[in-house]
Structure prediction request, 476 residues.
Amino acid sequence: MDNQREQFGSKLGFILAAAGSAVGIGNLVGFPVNAAKSGGAAFLMVYAFFVVVICLPVMMAEMSLGRHTKRNPLGAYSSVSGGQFLWKIGGWLALITPFMIAVFYQVLTVWLLAYFVGAISGNLQAMAAPAYFGNFIQSNSVFVYLVVLIFIVGYVLNSGVQKGIERLAKILMPTLFVMLMLLTIFVLTLPNALVGIKYYLVPDISKISPEVISNALGQAFFSLSLGMGILITYGSYVSRKESIAGGAKMVALVDTSVAFFAGLLILPAIFVFNPATDTSELSSSSVSLVFTFLPKIFLSLQSIVGYLGASIFAATFFLLVFFAALTSQVSILQVPLSAFQDELKLSRLKSVLSLGGCAILLVVACTVSFGMVDYFTNFTNYGNANKSFFDVVIDVFYDTILPLNGFIICVFAMHYWKKANLNAEMSIGDENFQGSFTQKYVNGSLSYVIPAVLLIVFINTVCIKFFGFSLTDYLS
Ligand code: PHE
Prediction:
């Protein structure tokens, strides 16, 4: 065990760094798109329920495992289980998943960088046109941004945990949050926003379907950076003076608030700019929703601050979202990176270079999946739909696999590592933990109930996504 491991400098540093990992494209793009697609308020309700009831205990288990073992996920699994084969699979899944997430995440982060540059160079008007996004993602200029981003990510990764992540997150996250709230308030004052607010906040229970449940759980896992060992790795850098339960609650609160406001911004905006929107059309929403509506929102700020002011605001916002994505991207890559360093004893630079090389090939395959190369654009077909290479990566690594990883983590923490060890670890740095409601809930749910829910949702998601039917089809 490596006792010399770097530690986060302060409690706030840890929370902001973990929140920096958690807050990203998942909150600012994924959440509003999923909420729009899955029935608005019905989705929000299921999502919030999952965060509190399912995700928080899993988050605490991950952080505890990490702090206890002071290792990356692969090492954590093998050090606790004595290297048993089955748990190696869990460890590998916890490495491959973040690696593949990093691949598609890079594609989206490139778009954010490009939107920042677009806004700052006076292109806001053009960006607000409906066809702009579709044309942009098929243009060669994405490669220029990709190369720039590869250097930025490589540099940040190579400069180390504390310096790299903590410094960025501390200043930028709060600023982003304030800007998000200001924008939201602005949109809510525009005509017809009320229709969107109703769609987002007044639940229609009949809209809760197995698909909405799958989407909400997958989204919650993704947004909180769960089920891929991120928090095992983060936990390994947490000091023994900190309360894990307290930290986890704060991170979940910050993450969910950002997602909530992003939804409160984008959903009403849909109805402001297209008053004729019929909510049933929204079920086919995709990421282009956010990339089209954000420029429209900024453009309408013109009436208050003029075109220059609107462009500056837009550029600042995209820059901050870009940084949020960057901190997440760095944290995602941290997992396979720590594993390369700890298990293969490679230097940091060598690990960055070898992982980066493999990732770049896959990122390019995703980037050309939007029409540039037919092979990757029409990569395959399942669940009654044509899928590009990018779609496959998203379907598997955003929508499907995380609950399975969560299931493995729960079983591992509770049945191998054992409840008593989890309790002991969670009591370190937290004298109120023993006997608290949190302890009772975590102890009572994490052994059977939560893993059972995760497994069922995972199987159902596979059925829906890949085979076009739901388990509940057999119940009626
Ligand atoms: N949670 C981050 C987001 O919402 C993404 C992420 C996923 C980060 C997985 C780390 C691990 O954008």
The beta strands are 380-382, 385-387. The pocket of phenylalanine is lined by residues 21-22, 24-27, 98, 101, 222-223, 225, 228, 230, 328, 331-332 (CB under 6 Å). Residues 282 and 355 are 38 Å apart (CA to CA).
